[in-house]
Structures are given as structure tokens and as C-alpha cells.
Amino acid sequence: MLPWRKVLTATSQSLVKQLHTSKVLKEAVVLNGKQIANEIQNELKTVVDAWINENKKRPTLVAILVGNNPASKVYIKRKMNAAKAIGIESYTLHLEDTIVQQDLINEINRLNADEAVDGIFVQLPLAEHIDEYEVSQAVAPNKDVDGFHLENLGKLTVSSSGIVPATALAIKELIIRSKMETFGKNAVIVGRSKHIGLPVALQLHADGKDYPGALDMTTTICHRHTPHTELEKFTKLADLLVVATGIPGLITKEMVKPGACVIDVGITRVKVGNKYKLVGDVDFENVKTVAGYITPVPGGVGPLTVAMAMKNTISLAMKNHLTSK
Question: Has 143 been annotated as catalytic?
């Protein structure tokens, strides 16, 4: 059992103190995803060290990179660095972007059959001639670090013990570690993707009566076809607003309920003058004057997503160890 609900560490206690202080000062607390991710990675390293000390196999993670997308290379490097820091064995299988879909699936099947491999993830996006859905379904459910396989997504719909997509898990962990009140509160998710929006909504609305750690929120999903006037009506009701659309600056100050928690998953590279910068879906500078809590871009959800991918890898390694007996 991983120690996710142990007594808060000094880092989390400091964050909670910030949250309470912000209520007095009436200004948004910027939720430091990197700080919380470091805390989680330290916990995971303790788990892996204990696992190895029991003479069990070191968890092994394989990343599959197709092509040479610069952003994909950066994301994989971050995951590999996190794996190394925690004590997870890892390597990257780098394939040319000219590879045909069946050959890619054959490589995945080879890793599925390799008992030394505990977790697999395919870095997205893929080349246009490759069907991302078919490739995601090729990864065996018991090695599916991303949680994209239908079996794992299906388990999530019934609050079962499958692997949860890392970003959705990151958002839940951020909420829990920040000690936010969720029971009966309103949550609005802007974005309905099967990898982020939908699993986030399922995590937020799950019933605590049947699912330990569930958040019991009243949850609404909006999307790119929700008329802006209607979108604003929903977002103004949100105690928790999660935005994952890839539309820079979509959420403005006027759309946010005072004191709400705003979690920005979007990240887009835009040109400002002669330079490029990363921005989120939320007008950060103005929204932070209204919100109670807010995540920055970058440095918010991203580092936590990497940490949760490592958590998934360790969970898979432990489950696979039990089933191999």
C-alpha cells in the first residue's frame, strides 16, 4: 500500500498555512506544482527503496518516442529524470516517424510480453498516419502507465482500482494535498477529452461512500461548443474550475467565482514580440486577483503529472509482482 494518506510533510504543512493566510488577505495562493511533485517523488523513492530492500525487482518503465518532436523529447526527458531520481529503471525506445502503424504495435506487443517491463507509455502526439486510439489500446492494461486503455478507463467509471490517467490523478492529488473542501461543492471542467476532461470529472464526482478518497463534488463538463455566454454562467458557479482546452486566455477574471480554485491544464507556446512563451487557458495575472487558489503555467499541473506517471509505474510493478506469484 503506497503511503498517500500519511501525515502531511513540512512542505504540505507550509502550503496549508499559505492557504489559510490567503483567506485573510483575500488574494490567490499560487499552487506550486513543482514543490508538491518533489514531495511526492521523495515519498515514491522511499517506497521503491523499501521494495528493493525486500529483494524484489526494481520497477522498469519504457517510453516509446516516434519521430523527433522537440516538445515530446522534453516531456520524455522529464519523465526519465524523475524515474532515475526515484529509483525506477527506465529507457526510451526511439522509432522513426516513418514507421508503419503495425510495426509500432508489434514493438508494443514485444514489450507487453517482456516480463522485465512493468510500465509502458507512448509519447503523444504521433505521426498523422498512425491512429493514436489503436496504439493506446495496444498497450496491455497491466502495463498502461497513461491509463488510456479501455479496461482502465472502464474501471475508473465504476470507481474501481484501475490505473488513472496521470493528469487526472495529478489534479486530484493537488486538491487533496492543498486541503481544499470538496464535499458537495460545484466543480466545472472545461474540456471533454478522454484523456483529461472526462477522467478528471469522474475523479471529482465519485461517491465517497463506495470509493475511499473520492471527492463528492457536483460536476459539470463544458467544451469548445458550449456558447461563451453559457460557459460563463457555468464557470461563475464553480468552486473548483479545471480548464483543459488549449485555448490561451479563454478564462477571464469576469468568468471566475470569487475565492474559487482555478486549475489550468492548458499549455500553448505563443509568440510575444520576438520571443516565445508558454501560456495557459487562464488569464493568470487578472484571474489571480479574484480566485482563492490558482495554478501557474508552467510549473503547476505539469510537474505533478510526471510524478503521477511514476506513481502509476510503481503501482503496476507491485500489481504485476502479486499476479506473477
Answer: no
